[in-house]
Amino acid sequence: MKSIYLFSEGSKDMKGLLGGKGANLAEMTKLGVPVPPGFTITTEVCDYYNKNGRYPNTLEGELNTALSTLEKQMGMKLGDPENPLLVSVRSGAAISMPGMMDTILNLGLNDTTVEAVIRRTSNPRFAWDSYRRFIQMFGDVVMGVPHSKFEAILHEAKETKGVSYDIELDADDLRELTASFKEIIEREAGREFPAEPREQLRMAIDAVFGSWNNERAILYRKLNNITGLKGTAVNVQAMVFGNMGNDSGTGVCFTRNPSTGENAFYGEYLMNAQGEDVVAGIRTPQPISSLEKQLPGAYKQLLDIRERLEKHYRDMQDMEFTIQKGKLYMLQTRTGKRTAAAAVRIAVEMVDEGLITKDEALLRIDPLQLDQLLHPQLDPIAKAEAKVAAAGLPASPGAAVGEAVFDAQKAHEMVERDKAKVVLVRTETSPEDLIGMNAAEGILTARGGMTSHAAVVARGMGKCCIAGCQDITIKEDEGYMVLGGQRVEEGDVISLDGTEGKVYIGAIPTVEPGISGYFGKLMGWADEARKLGVRTNADTPHDAKVARKFGAEGIGLCRTEHMFFEGDRINIMREMILAPDRPSRKRALDKLLPMQQEDFKGLFDAMEGLPVTIRLLDPPLHEFLPHEEADIKEVASQLGVSVSALREKMESLREVNPMLGHRGVRLAITYPEIAEMQAEAIIRAALDVKKEGKEIVPEIMIPLVGDVKELAYVKKVVCRVADELIGEAGVKMRYMVGTMIEVPRAALTAGEIASEAEFFSFGTNDLTQMTLGFSRDDAGKFLPEYLSKRILDKDPFQALDQEGVGQLVKMAVEKGRKARPGIHLGICGEHGGEPSSIEFCHKAGLDYVSCSPYRVPIARLAAAQAALRAKASQ
Amino acid sequence: MKSIYLFSEGSKDMKGLLGGKGANLAEMTKLGVPVPPGFTITTEVCDYYNKNGRYPNTLEGELNTALSTLEKQMGMKLGDPENPLLVSVRSGAAISMPGMMDTILNLGLNDTTVEAVIRRTSNPRFAWDSYRRFIQMFGDVVMGVPHSKFEAILHEAKETKGVSYDIELDADDLRELTASFKEIIEREAGREFPAEPREQLRMAIDAVFGSWNNERAILYRKLNNITGLKGTAVNVQAMVFGNMGNDSGTGVCFTRNPSTGENAFYGEYLMNAQGEDVVAGIRTPQPISSLEKQLPGAYKQLLDIRERLEKHYRDMQDMEFTIQKGKLYMLQTRTGKRTAAAAVRIAVEMVDEGLITKDEALLRIDPLQLDQLLHPQLDPIAKAEAKVAAAGLPASPGAAVGEAVFDAQKAHEMVERDKAKVVLVRTETSPEDLIGMNAAEGILTARGGMTSHAAVVARGMGKCCIAGCQDITIKEDEGYMVLGGQRVEEGDVISLDGTEGKVYIGAIPTVEPGISGYFGKLMGWADEARKLGVRTNADTPHDAKVARKFGAEGIGLCRTEHMFFEGDRINIMREMILAPDRPSRKRALDKLLPMQQEDFKGLFDAMEGLPVTIRLLDPPLHEFLPHEEADIKEVASQLGVSVSALREKMESLREVNPMLGHRGVRLAITYPEIAEMQAEAIIRAALDVKKEGKEIVPEIMIPLVGDVKELAYVKKVVCRVADELIGEAGVKMRYMVGTMIEVPRAALTAGEIASEAEFFSFGTNDLTQMTLGFSRDDAGKFLPEYLSKRILDKDPFQALDQEGVGQLVKMAVEKGRKARPGIHLGICGEHGGEPSSIEFCHKAGLDYVSCSPYRVPIARLAAAQAALRAKASQ
Q: Whole-model pTM?
């Protein structure tokens, strides 16, 4: 096992072993891009350490060799009292986890070497500043002394001197600070700051490997579903300094705009600073274009590198650079994170530029990320009339409306406990705020730039974010902020427009997004590529219209029960449930009939002739009765029955396991009159549509079937009603009767069921519940533990369990097609909108997926990707 | 389609077409046994009528032909004013349904033919008695006039005349009765009694066919799970008369004793009576042996026929006969119903007699019937000390202890609603009482003989029955009886000894039965024949011992949770559940450990080295908390927690669908310390047993596994504990870790699971719930409708759903064996004791079935039958 690779030995294809940062440093070295030399300790070493509690025996020897090579390349030596080599020690896993793991800069400094640096640079301020930063970082990261302890002393020093900025502290001030910092370390960590550079290096490597398993890194991997990695690599690299004076600086840049996708060089930098200053968002940096004036040579070189790297990687790059006394060094390049809008625009434009193919463009976009484009924006009209309270950097687009909260934990709790919608407001964010950012609708910070922690993380999450909003003053401890001169308390509602970077006090209405421009173009390509149809689950004409706008090709699931909760229908429904006999039940159903008919007519109209699958009543009847003590009396009096009669009925309908109870087709068998009424409403509505000259083939779906005899029984009822009505109308009209496959037995006996069913729709929500024996309502008690103990890789209610549930789906497809070759097959569970499940559906040979309206574009893209991947693997 | 067969045309193998009665009348005719001639209208006609609402066109012609053949054979003519033929019209399906369908005797009588009968018999009383019986039966059965209306007039006539018995009415009285009966018919039915014999015949045939679908026939078929029949046949047969004077009579006899099985001629008869008098139980008949004195010739002939028929049919026969003026006629023979004890004894003795083979003996006994032999008898010692309150006929053996109830509907309700145990006490029973007989522990009647309705039905149900108990006077309407001079109110407890025919006031303790004698011999043969092992589901040493006595070869399922409900353990369990953290949870578990250890030691001891499978904790924790408002306060104070804390915990544990919730292996994953404690208790107990020099291989079973990773996780916990303890003890001891297959996903991924599981036990209760999506606790809301609408043939919780659930079982067997060839496979759901399911298990290749202790002998026999049938079909 080779533990260490020099940058000159690796390449971008070695990410698994060298981590993303290490592999790309090696690649840039190979390309001749200026990179300070260094080496990478592999992820296998991290893995070895985690498994064995010690390093491989060969590591020390390899480290010595690599270090002396580096010393030779630089002509400097670690700890040398005359010409000391300083290095950075950085983490870097195969998948980028920004800010989650640790970094140490300026390693190699001690009381002796700092003097050598002073001698060589003639810049005592720089030397002492580097030294105090090193102690501070090393104390925090390696020795576990809280960052705030150092900051407090720094703050004190500035106060004493009466200045505001670090930069105003001189060499002497900083020298004194190093002494104070070392004292803090000794007091807090119980041991001295280590002066020996080799010991510093060993401890730093330990700490970086250790940071793989710190809490926030684990949380980040969990949130981002990052699994299967060996660990982090450690990169040891010769230091270059952006804080050597006003001809030095450091910055972050993107080959294209990561927020909009525009093909324009984009980034920001700080003069006389180290990288951490940019990322931490403490000083607000300058836009990259200003560099052209300040250091035109370096800028030109950077522009050239931008072009070379993007062509080489064939994707938008996110780069870090440092300019040391006018000379440019690249410290990192990686494929840049981007908003969904940017991802789409970049992919489409790169196709137009001939850089990538359409297939590559389609495969490059994470379908789930499109979700960002499908959520509301602030209503332009309402926005125009509202007063802008403050403006900041448009760090992540979209809209957020919610209660302002100034603490991440609190934000999390308010969402969890009160189901509140919140906007997290912080002076600046740090990885500790992740939990609150995750819970919030959007994020607003007072400091930091477009590449600050808040901005990067929010873009990754697809959440709206405004960063560096200097018009606000936040009193986090006191729980309020002053925004545009107005005091905003915790809980007051504010609205963010992340696309424009504008903040409003109060709630501004939002509007639905559409598919056009680059997005529309990409979706067009997706439609050409995919084989699966994409339908939607919609119960109302409104949902149906939204889904149509997003490209739905029909309704795969209309849940009729939702229609019974609206307005006074619920009371008629209750009247039906409480009816003592069939005739009075029928009287109540007769009242519901015209309402249902109108509902269906509305849906048929909205879908303009596209197929519409309507499921007959599914939930157990007790769901329609009141549950709260207080409501029972009211409902009883509304219905004109005694409280005791109502209670008695409720008691008789009570179920131990309602999921497995008296619902679905079982209702239609015990109360065929309900199925009759619904069939009548569907057919009458279809006949109405037909009268208007439009064609419609209603698909009537019987839920929860487990045996063909159940389906046959209800089908007979439905067909009798339908055929009679169609006969009376004297027209020809086709309709279909099919079933959900959601009970395991239905999949097992799908051959028999197909003899009666003209279509199958896989109800994978219930099929998952029954196949796994997980009640979705109760699985929260153990699922988190299952995920954290890695007993399950994914929540099976989100991503289809292909091994178990998928086996039943495949079995049913095969048996169903064998028994009825033309049978139409789809899926209408939540999984119909989840990319990995959609890929499964493609492979299983389904005809379509059906998902919620906002998932339709995601499904279209995921279906295209499935088809492309299948083609590629042939 | 041939609709009618003369008796001389059929044979006993044509039961499906001719019904049991018709086929056997034909067979006897062929054998030369004296049978009055006649013919059978086939069951296909019944089926045709039910499907088409009319008879086949050819029926009328065939009926005319058959009737004229019969007239020729008898030398008489239907309706002939000089020499009229009288016929009986009787139902008879392929499977006997005693008393469920209708019969009409003496058909052909009217005001003219009755005079011819008087002239030919010179017995006006006989003629008028026959006529009034015919009108009464015809009125009741064909024209729908309630039986009671006729009885009331008959009663009045007797009162007027001051006599007690029908026999005391003379010809004139009876003539007057016929007139009154005809008037009632006209008044009640709205039309005249039909005088024309051909019309009488057509109407009677209609009524008998119609009786196939009367309510009690449907109920009977449902209770006895009789399906797949075409309908009833109709037998038209020349009348012979047992009521022609004192040289005439009628009776019912069995070739062996149907109650005990003793090889002795058995039966009873009434002189000067028609068949209905014996069956209805109105007069108490004489034992058959008395016939030898009264009519020695007929008796000798009957003995001869007894022998011929039993040899011919190779089984015990139940025969009906009539003696007309000294001449014997056989009216029916069929394989006789018998108690389980009789069935066993007859089968074993017939093998000993060389009449049948051992295999035949085994196949001849319905395994479920053995249940009768496995239930308690009255304790002989307690019985000896108790006072016999009354004695009757020992109509069906066994014991019954319960509240006396005098109304069938009420008996049913008390059992359903109050879970009461009741004894149904009636003057006599009729088919309307079926619902109450089904609900009761036992039946006591004041009138009727060993072949009365009560006796026959009770024996069929395997229920204890005492019939013809003349020492009691029952006031059904007033709700009490006088029993041995003592008044017994409804709800007072009485005890029946059906084996001896004795009634006791109060509850007499019962004792467990054993397997010995004929039963033991049969079980020995079963054990030789079967391939499946038979284990038991037992949680206590007591249950384990009972099962051992019944032949269990191990414990297939010990449910450890039952142990946590006993005594003060429930409080420790609750302490564990309410524990705020792992250490306090462990403290509570430490208290449970020695108790569990003792439990397991007791089980191991009781099973004497046979295998014992112990399932780790399965139910959700909320099952251990109080449910009633009243208990919460008490429990809180016992546990020293606040009511609100207890409530909060209860709320946090509440589940929407507990069946699919936080239970089984999921508990062991979230609280591994529970599994640790149980593993420790099991292994410590096994080590204790080993110290005593006995061998034991404990089998530790993890419930509710759906993914191999769940099993692997808990197996690791269990093995760590077990290996440590065994290591400490310094001995060698084997133990096994396996899993339930009860989640559909477990069956689907059984190959993977078998890589960790050393055995599978199919938990078909839960597997049925999840595969069908039926909550067992809630299915009562729709299952009855499913069964009555024939959507399901059987309750899937009683008989394994072979098509659905069975498919998963077969899949798991195949995948499991492929992955681990030696894997041990069993079933521990309720189905393990149900014969059709046991046959399935045999075919699926399981190693054993496990069932409740009282089902063990049933399983042994069913397993033997499965093996024999499989051998036969090879």
A: 0.81
